[in-house]
Design goal:
By secondary structure, the protein is an all-alpha fold. It is 86% helix and 0% strand. The chain has 2 domains: 1-228, no CATH class; 240-441, no CATH class.
């Protein structure tokens, strides 16, 4: 195969990144739609219930992010090696784990209910509404986790458009379904939950339809028994276990920030929440390039093409640097205006502006972490990712507790910047050993 030149590689990066960015931007619409609907049907308890239920599902589903990431890296490598049988086997493994995990979640809904009743501190009305929503939406677990695996598989197959169209359809059906159940059939918060359940299964049906249309000719190569052999499943679980532990560290950091912010007072909590929304905006864009990295790095590792691998890593970092420059300028010049879009409370905006300097530094300190996450997933260097995350998370907590007494909220932001910088920096230092050597081993 003729080596790809710089222009062709850039086109492939954008072909994969742009649909992924669109997909990422549509994700928060699910939660926004639910909040907007319940905001018109009841008192503040309804909005609080949606927020709490979303928190519960985020804690559950974040832990299964390995289904997407592990599947995409392995699939991309099999694709690069032109091993279509292995591509199918990886999909079978991912979907099998998704189904088993979903059944377990449904079976465990009562223990989860008890945990919510024990640890969620809210009014009884809010808690009851939260659990009504939870007990309905949990039945979407097979579709939600199945979509994780299918999305990862599509990305590994260099197809970022399929997840984009699935996400768009899913959001449209969620909006229409929730409006119908709430305002026509008057199901209240249960109607919002049913709208989400139907949307998830519609997304899964569309994903299966796309698979049959674009890859249906491969279905005769599916070998379920061979795909689930102990040796292959062990490797699959080992990679995913590393990603799972890495994700737990991410959850620890991003849960700790609002938790500890609350101890500093409502204004600091509100300010940090707004500033983290600006970080989330950055993450939507950077994750698009990270997904492109998963696809292309996995492909070139599978092809054992070290030259192409080095070139695509360099170009991905340049794209990340370019986006970091753009967002730094945006936050530095339009920070107050962006905060004004999120709230009209001037006291909260004034408090947030005291810490805006740290948000301005986030893009340059964090872009490498995002890009290298995709690169390492594509290379299935999950153990290295896990260890880097262990170190960065430990430094985050050590730095915070060393600084918070004298610097307060500034100490929290410094710790967060160290967390981002260390992740990207250590992965950059280890890329020869953990990434480039993969192409020739």
């Amino acid at each position: 195969m003729r080596p790809l030149n710089r222009s062709e590689l850039n086109k492939q990066i954008l072909r994969l990144a742009i649909p992924s960015i669109v997909t990422n931007i549509t994700v928060p619409l699910l939660g926004m739609v639910d909040v907007a609907i319940v905001g018109h049907i009841g008192n503040a308890s309804y909005i609080a219930a949606i927020a709490l239920a979303t928190m519960v599902f985020n804690l559950i589903y974040w832990n299964f992010g390995f289904l997407r990431m592990g599947t995409s890296g392995l699939t991309a490598q099999a694709y690069g090696a032109d091993n279509r049988t292995e591509c199918l086997s990886i999909l079978v493994r991912g979907m099998t784990i998704a189904l088993v995990a979903a059944v377990l979640l449904i079976a465990l809904q009562q223990p989860i209910d008890l945990l919510c009743r024990r640890y969620i501190r809210s009014s009884q009305e809010t808690l009851d509404l939260t659990l009504v929503y939870f007990h309905i939406r949990i039945w979407a677990a097979p579709a939600t986790l199945g979509l994780y695996a299918l999305k990862g598989w599509f990305i590994g197959m260099q197809n970022a458009k399929a997840p984009m169209w699935i996400a768009i359809l899913l959001n449209i059906i969620n909006i229409v379904g929730s409006l119908l159940f709430v305002f026509v059939f008057h199901y209240g918060i249960a109607g919002v939950a049913w709208g989400t359940v139907i949307a998830q299964y519609s997304g899964l049906a569309m994903a299966i339809g796309i698979w049959l249309k674009q890859y249906g000719s491969m279905r005769h190569g599916i070998r379920v028994r061979e795909s689930l052999r102990l040796e292959e499943m062990t490797r699959f679980f080992k990679i995913n276990a590393d990603i799972f532990l890495r994700t737990l560290c991410l959850i620890a950091v991003f849960t700790f920030i609002p938790y500890i912010s609350a101890e500093m007072g409502d204004e600091v909590l509100a300010a940090n929440t707004l500033l983290m929304q600006l970080f989330t905006l950055l993450s939507y864009i950077m994750d698009g390039f990270a997904y492109a990295g998963e696809s292309l790095v996995g492909r070139f590792v599978g092809m054992r093409d070290e030259q192409a691998l080095r070139r695509v890593v360099r170009l991905l970092l340049l794209w990340g640097l370019g986006m970091a420059t753009l967002f730094t300028l945006l936050y530095a010049t339009c920070g107050r205006g962006l905060l004004g879009i999120l709230t009209n409370k001037q006291d909260v905006i004034d408090t947030a502006m005291q810490y805006m300097v740290w948000t301005v530094l986030v893009p340059f300190t964090g872009f490498a972490a995002f890009i290298y996450d995709g690169i390492y997933i594509g290379a299935t260097a999950s153990k290295a990712m896990r260890n880097v995350m262990f170190v960065a998370t430990a430094v985050f907590f050590i730095a915070y507790y060393a600084l918070h007494r004298t610097l307060g909220n500034d100490g929290l932001w410094i710790a967060f910047l160290l967390f981002l910088t260390l992740r990207g920096g250590i992965m950059w230092l280890g890329q020869r050993r953990w990434i480039f050597d993969q192409a020739t081993s």
